[in-house]
Amino acid sequence: MKTYLNKLLRHGELSADETRQILLDITEEKYPSEQIASLLAMLQFRGVTIDELIGFRQALMETRVPVDLAPYKPIDIVGTGGDGKNTFNISTCSCFVVAGAGYKVAKHGNYAATSVSGASTVMQQHGVVFKSDRDSLLRSIEECNMVYLHAQLFAKAMKFVGPVRKAVQFPTVFNLLGPVINPCQPSYQLLGVANLEQMRLYVNTLNRLGIRYAVVTSLDGYDEISLTSGFKIATTDYEHLYRPEDLGFKTVSQESLYGGDTPEKAAKIFDNVLENKATLAQTQAVIANSAVAIKVMEPQKRIEECISIARESLESGKALKCFRKFVEINR
Fold first, then answer.
1. Are the CB atoms for 43 and 172 separated by under 8 Å?
2. What is the DSSP string of 132-178?
């Protein structure tokens, strides 16, 4: 570790092999917490490189509880979190809209970092029990097109850095890793990020990993397509800047996406969306993100067609039916 710290002090960069080995060594408790904290602080101050991120990811994937869902070619819809906007569970709602449209979804999620309700929070509000056994996961994705992978059941190495992350009280490289360590290694990903700098980091990382993707950000700092401003989409094939009106949506206020001040209120908004009782702003945001996810899997379709598919899934009740079946299976 002294070698790695001195390298960073000299403004050097760590290789993917080095960061992989660092995390594997951390899981074997080879380093004192003070050295780990120093490493995380220096990486955060300078900014993590693609190689460093990929090395940490590789170690996490090597030590994970594996899940083989490759035959289903699922998509993961996830935001980085930490944008401080406390929106309702847009990504999780979108998962069920996409699953209701007939596509396979493998959502990787956790409790919230900065908002009231993360994906795991809203799942628990509905009585969902998190599972990691193969039979339960396969039944879920086969019978309702949706499986939920609660991060804490699968990323075993994370528990070794948990105390240090809590002690340092600032974001670290491990906050960036969550969206790219889905244990099933999905075929497709829709990833929401809070700014253009993060977008560049993840685009380059996902290109290296060989996943078909769309990375989205709203220009006013949301880690999803919020429709509160213009937004950018970067995919495997293209990059484009949109206004909400370009896709037939209305620009909405930030207040209209507020997720409530309790998990119970956030769950109620979630239910309203899937029951087609939500506000226009809430419904539009979910349809927009769902449509881009569908576009990732069906690149030959025009985005307008993908919007129609997402809207039909929601308005017909297919998304709600999918969610209710999911809850029934995962109690």
1. yes
2. --HHHHHHHHHHHSEEEEEHHHH-TTHHHHHHHHHHH-S--HHHHHG
CA distances from 118 to 17, 110, 121, 143, 284 (A): 32, 6, 5, 24, 20
Summarize the confidence of residues 28-36 as an average pLDDT: 95
Opening angle at CA 182, ends 179 and 183, nearest 5: 155
Interval 142-177: pLDDT, tens: 999 999 999 999 998 988 998 898 888 888 898 889
- Check residue 113 and give its pLDDT: 65
Q: What percent of the chain has pLDDT over 70?
A: 99
Q: What is the spatial distance between Cα 294 and Cα 310, in angstroms, rounded to a whole number?
A: 8
Name 28's Cβ contacts closer than 8 Å, sequence gap at least 6: none
Q: Is 2-62's fold the same as 70-153+178-329's?
A: no
CA distances from 174 to 8, 39, 53, 155, 317 (A): 18, 12, 9, 11, 37
Q: Which of 161, 137, 119, 149 shows the shortest CA–CA distance to 19?
A: 161
Task: Kindly list the domain boundaries of the chain, sorted by start residue.
Answer: 2-62, 70-153+178-329
CA proximity to 103, closest of 328, 319, 331, 324: 319
Task: Judge: domain 2-62, CATH 3.40.50.2020.
Answer: no
Which helix (H) or strand (E) segment holds residue 217: the answer is strand 212-218
Tell me which of 3.40.50.2300, 3.40.1030.10, 3.50.50.60, 2.30.30.240 is the CATH number of domain 70-153+178-329. Answer: 3.40.1030.10
pLDDT tens digits, one per residue of 3-27: 999 999 999 999 999 999 999 999 9
